[in-house]
């Protein structure tokens, strides 16, 4: 099992819709195919959710892992939270909400002398959700394999489905339309500081931008690489002492500028604006545009591990024609295009206050001063002890943002 994730994607041809999936990602050697399908069939046919002792143990383990990861993965949390008010997809994938839910169950369990009713209710809700998910009308399967084994794989899938029909009485039932969760998304611009026991800060500013199919999206991707290379690194890392800085953009409707392990907080936002103004004034040359394009293509052409081959296309409806058009548009990006989209999607939004600003930072900062400036101050999780930052500065470290 390479992973089990609850993920939300936006189908490329549906601007106002999102698809929510529980993705079970599996892979095996050819010789182990039968064993893998046997294990998957057993797992999906009869998982044991009613073992409250195991459930209690998992809550303790996961809440402890979350508490320890809040400092280590602060940048990922900050980008995720800043993006969540700008995009439906990011709203449903927001990391901190899921972490807070798990921690709240763990805290309630510790506060009561008899946690069994709480655990029984949690087990019931998990099993109820599982029964709704394992349904013929909701199940989709994507296979990446040599053609030599496709017939054998198809036979094993057919057998697995027949087992579900026999052992799960809800498998063939019509799906009952649940509450439209998309209605819970309301666009909002955050301005919030999350206080943690550490000496440094992770500063993020996010902007709403078009999705993958829009003609401006390739221009924005080149813009991100350009700002990162010619301004953000120089102003935030070299001059202000942060370990790293950059621009995060994965074509799903949100662009985020960030600093990593930054000794500053609000001052960094002036550096973000400076980076955008640098582009608006045309203070870059054609060679730098070419270098930014090369960086984009290197990232696009990065090898995909075998067990994720075709997965993104499968979940979003991305076609080869879409990819080819995107690449052609990337090649056609000009200096004038970059000035235009920078003004339209960053500078104008900064002027109108249409961006989200989120900091995961030191609890030793002047929090009262931030509150006086209109910042909301919170702790990421309540009643959970967060491990202090033990990180040693490493200037060669490249931050990885997990969304």
What fraction of the residues are assigned to beta strands by DSSP?
5-15%
The count of helical stretches stands at 14
Based on Cα principal axes, name the global outline: globular
Helicity range: 40-55%
SSE arrangement, N to C: EEHHHHHHHEEHEEHHHHHEHE
Which sequence of strands runs across the widest sheet? 5-6-4-7-3-8
Low-confidence stretches: 393-397
SSE layout and pairings?
Blueprint: E1 3-9, E2 19-25, H1 33-45, H2 52-72, H3 74-84, H4 88-92, H5 95-111, H6 116-133, H7 150-167, E3 191-196, E4 201-211, H8 217-238, E5 244-249, E6 252-262, H9 266-280, H10 286-300, H11 311-316, H12 320-331, H13 335-352, E7 356-362, H14 367-372, E8 376-378
Parallel strand pairs: 3-7, 3-8
Antiparallel strand pairs: 1-2, 4-6, 4-7, 5-6
Helix pairs in contact: 1-7, 2-5, 8-9, 8-10, 8-12, 8-13, 9-13
Question: Could you please describe the fold and organization of this structure?
Answer:
The protein is α/β, with parallel strands linked by helices and 403 residues long. The chain has 14 helices and 8 strands. The strands form 2 sheets. The chain has a 6-stranded mixed beta sheet with strand order 5-6-4-7-3-8, sandwiched between helices. Strands 1-2 form a two-stranded antiparallel ribbon. The radius of gyration is 23 Å and the shape is globular.
């Amino acid at each position: 099992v390479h992973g089990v994730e609850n993920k939300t994607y936006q189908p490329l041809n549906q601007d106002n819709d999102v698809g929510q999936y529980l993705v079970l990602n599996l892979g095996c050697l050819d010789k182990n195919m039968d064993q893998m399908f046997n294990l998957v069939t057993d797992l999906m046919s009869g998982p044991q959710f009613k073992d409250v002792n195991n459930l209690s143990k998992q809550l303790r383990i996961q809440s402890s892992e979350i508490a320890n990861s809040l400092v280590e993965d602060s940048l990922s949390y900050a980008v995720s939270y800043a993006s969540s008010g700008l995009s439906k997809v990011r709203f449903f994938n927001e990391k901190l909400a899921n972490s807070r839910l798990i921690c709240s169950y763990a805290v309630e369990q510790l506060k009561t002398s008899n946690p069994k009713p709480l655990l029984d209710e949690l087990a019931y809700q998990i099993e109820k959700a599982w029964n709704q998910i394992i349904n013929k009308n909701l199940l989709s399967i994507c296979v990446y394999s040599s053609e030599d084994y496709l017939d054998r794989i198809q036979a094993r899938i057919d057998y697995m489905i027949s087992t579900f029909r026999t052992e799960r009485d809800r498998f063939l039932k019509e799906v009952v339309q649940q509450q439209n969760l998309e209605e819970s998304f309301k666009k909002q611009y955050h301005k919030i500081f999350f206080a943690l026991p550490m000496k440094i800060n992770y500063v993020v500013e996010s902007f709403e931008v078009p999705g993958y199919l829009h003609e401006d999206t390739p221009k924005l991707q080149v813009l991100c690489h350009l700002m990162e290379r010619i301004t953000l690194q120089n102003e935030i890392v070299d001059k202000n002492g942060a370990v790293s800085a950059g621009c995060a953009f994965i074509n799903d409707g949100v662009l985020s500028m960030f600093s990593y392990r930054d000794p500053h907080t609000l001052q960094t936002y002036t550096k973000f604006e400076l980076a955008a103004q640098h582009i608006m004034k045309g203070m870059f040359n054609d060679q730098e545009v070419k270098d930014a394009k090369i960086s984009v293509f290197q990232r696009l052409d990065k090898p995909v591990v075998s067990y994720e081959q075709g997965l993104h296309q499968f979940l979003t409806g991305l076609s080869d024609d879409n990819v080819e058009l995107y690449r052609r548009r990337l090649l056609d990006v000009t200096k004038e295009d970059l000035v235009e989209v920078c003004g339209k999607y960053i500078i104008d939004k900064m002027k109108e206050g249409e961006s989200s600003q989120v900091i995961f930072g030191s609890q030793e900062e002047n929090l009262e001063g931030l509150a006086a400036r209109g910042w909301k101050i919170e702790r990421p999780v309540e009643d959970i002890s967060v491990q202090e930052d033990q990180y040693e500065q490493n200037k060669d470290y490249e931050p990885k943002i997990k969304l």
